[in-house]
Design goal:
By secondary structure, the chain is an alpha/beta fold. It has helices at about 5-20, 55-65, 90-95, 115-120, 130-135, 140-145, 175-190, 195-205, 255-260, 275-285, 300-305; strands spanning about 30-35, 40-45, 70-75, 100-105, 125, 150-160, 190-195, 220-225, 245-250, 265-270, 290-295, 310-320, 345-350, 355-360.
Length: about 375
Amino acid sequence: MATPADTDAMRRAVTLAARALGATSPNPVVGCVIHDASGRPVGEGFHQRAGGPHAEIHALRAAGPAARGGTAYVTLEPCNHTGRTGPCAQALIEAGVARVVYAVADPGPEAGGGAETLRAAGVTVERGLLAAEAEEGNAAWLTSVRLGRPHVLWKYAATLDGRIAASDATSRWITSAEARADVHRLRAEADAVVVGAGTARADDPHLAVRGVEGAVQPLRVVVDTEATAVKPGARVLDGAAPTLIAVAGDVTTRHLVDAGHSGNLVRLPRAARGLDIPALLAALHERGVRSVLLEGGPTLAGSFVAAGCVDKVVGYLAPVLLGAGPAALSDAGISTIADALRLHVNEVVAIGTDLRITATPVPATKEH
C-alpha cells in the first residue's frame, strides 16, 4: 500500500515529466525520483529530448551509490529494450534499486515488459500510483501508441455566448492578454499547430510560439484543401518554425512550388468536406508528430469532431456578449441531441479576466 511519502515522490515525478512537454517526440515524457534505503530523496530526473538519456538514467546519475537498496518512482514502466539508449529496467537492476513504483504500464510492444524483468531480478515492483495524473501528462504519446495517430487538443476562444467573432468578422481581442499568453504555452507543449484555410485567409497567422523560454517550435500546419489560402510571402512560410501545407491531391500548387515551397506540401485525399482528417493525422504521425493543437476555425473543428478525432477541448470564455457572429463549432455531423458529443469537465480556472475550461469526450456507452 502506498504511503504519503510514495505519493509525494510520484507527484514530484509527474511534475518533472511535464517539464519536457513538446520536446521529446516521438518519445514519451517521463519523470523519475529516487529515494535511498532510508526513504530520503537522493536523485531525480526527466526525459528531456528524444535520443537523450531517459528519466531513470538522469535520476540514477544524480543518486549515485545512494540508489542501492532504495526505491525508484517512475511515471511510466521502465523500458525493456535497447534503442538509442539502453534499457532502463537493466540500469535500475545494476544500480541495486530494491523497489520500483511506476504509474502507467508501457503499452508499446518494444519497450514494454520492464516490470517483469525487474521482478525476475528480485526487485519489488508496484504499479498504478497516481496513474490518472501520469496518463494525463503523457496523453499524447499514449494516444499515439494506442490509436496510431496524434493526440488532438482543440483550443478555441469565444464570448460567453459562444461567438468567436462579431457579425462584421472582427475578433481582436475577445480574450485577455493572459489567455492569449496561455495559448502560447499550449503551442509550446504541442508537436504541431493546425489551422484551416479560413483562418489562414482571414488572419495570415504566424503560429509560432512566443514568450515561452526554451520552447521547441511546433510544426505549423495549414489545411488548405484547394491550395488558395496560403500565398508566397505568408507569415506561416517564414523561417521561425517548420511548416506543412496540406492540400488535395488534384489541385495545382505551382505558385508555391515556383516560390520554393515544394518541401512544405503534402497531398491528401478529399473527404465529403475538405480533406480526409484521419489521412491528415496519419501523415503527421509519420513525421513524428504525437500531439496536435487544433487552432482552426469552426469549419475545421467540425471536421475533426465529425471524424471522432478530438481528444481534449480547451475553451477560453470571455465575459463578453455579442449575440451574433460565427459560433465556435460548425457542422460536426450531429443532428440530434441524442448524438451530442458529451464532455467531462476536468478543470475550470480563471485566466486573466477569462475562464479556461478543459474537458475530454465522455466515452460512448453501449445500450443493452
